[in-house]
Specification:
The chain is mainly beta. The protein contains two helices and 13 strands, in the order αββββββββββαβββ. The strands form two sheets. Strands 1-3-4-7-8-9-10-11-12-13 form a ten-stranded antiparallel barrel. A two-stranded antiparallel ribbon has the order 5-6. The chain has one domain: Beta Barrel (Lipocalin). Helices cover 11% and strands 63% of the residues. It is elongated and about 65 Å long. A hairpin with a 2-residue loop joins strand 9 and strand 10.
């Protein structure tokens, strides 16, 4: 074989060797899910605005006079409004999370009573102009354990403590009455998240509790609540995201002579930052 022939064969082998890794480099990517965006953090904080519909009844007994069941809408003429919601989460490890959430709710109205009511031992007659206020502060803190953790989501269990603090005031030209009730309640529930796109996650959580009758008798109180939250998060990057969802929160509390039965449900929007 001539030198030119040997050189040609050698160059052919060299080109083949160079082409092999290049072909491997530009081959089709493997068929597996892309990594998710927004799950690499140790601290997460979010804030939102919630616009729930309003269903509520309160009563307060005093001086041996049974309190009327006062409806938020038909009696006090409270209107639907927006409330802030604040959340923070600490994530020491991938499956373990500590969280807190604070939702302050407040209503007020100036109206005229269409019927006679008794509130906190005081009689308010029909056609009486009154100013009514109601505030309900809900603080919850708890622990989440993600029992199943996958690349595209997780399923976890939640245990938490919740403090429900509500107060109501009725002010008339000649009198004013006020009542407040506060109760800590434990709870348990679950949470699940799925990434339908690398940047888009859907989360659903539910927690609740009902005070056992044996404990209710000792505390002279009854209480139960349910909190359902379903929302989507679109992550602009690993540090910032926008959120929107639907939440329902119901609470029924009786503390000695005070009673409250409330339901709030509606959509919310907010943002989240992470570090």
């Amino acid at each position: 074989m001539t030198r030119i022939g040997r050189l040609t064969i050698g160059m052919a082998f060299l080109l083949a060797a160079m082409a092999t890794p290049a072909a491997a480099q530009y081959s089709a990517p493997p068929l597996k899910p892309q990594g998710t965006i927004g799950e690499s953090y140790h601290i997460q904080a979010s804030a939102g605005l919630w616009s729930p519909g309003l269903i509520g009844v309160i009563s307060s007994e005093q001086f041996g006079l049974a309190g009327s069941k006062i409806d938020f809408v038909t009696d006090l003429k409270f209107q639907q409004t927006r409330f802030a919601d604040f959340r923070v989460e600490l994530r020491p490890s991938k499956r373990n999370k500590l969280f807190a959430q604070y939702t302050p709710i407040s209503y007020s109205s100036d109206t005229t009573l269409s019927r006679e009511i008794i509130f906190n031992g005081q009689k308010f007659t029909a056609n009486l102009p009154i100013k009514a206020t109601f505030d309900w502060k809900v603080l919850r803190a708890g622990y989440e354990l993600d029992i199943i953790s996958m690349e595209r989501g997780f399923i976890g269990a939640i245990i938490e403590a919740r403090i429900t603090d509500f107060g109501a005031t009725l002010t008339a030209p000649a009198t004013a009455e006020f009542t407040r009730a506060k109760a800590p309640l434990p709870a348990y529930g679950g949470i699940a998240r799925a990434y339908i796109l690398p940047r888009l996650a859907v989360t659903a959580s539910a927690t609740g509790f009902s005070l056992p009758q044996s404990l209710a008798d000792k505390l002279d109180a009854t209480g139960n609540y349910l909190d359902i939250d379903i929302y989507a998060t679109f992550n602009l990057n690993n540090y910032i995201g926008i959120q929107g969802g639907w939440r329902k929160m119901t609470t029924t509390v009786t503390l000695k002579k005070d009673f409250g039965d409330m339901e709030y449900k509606g959509i919310w929007f907010g943002g989240v930052v992470r570090y």
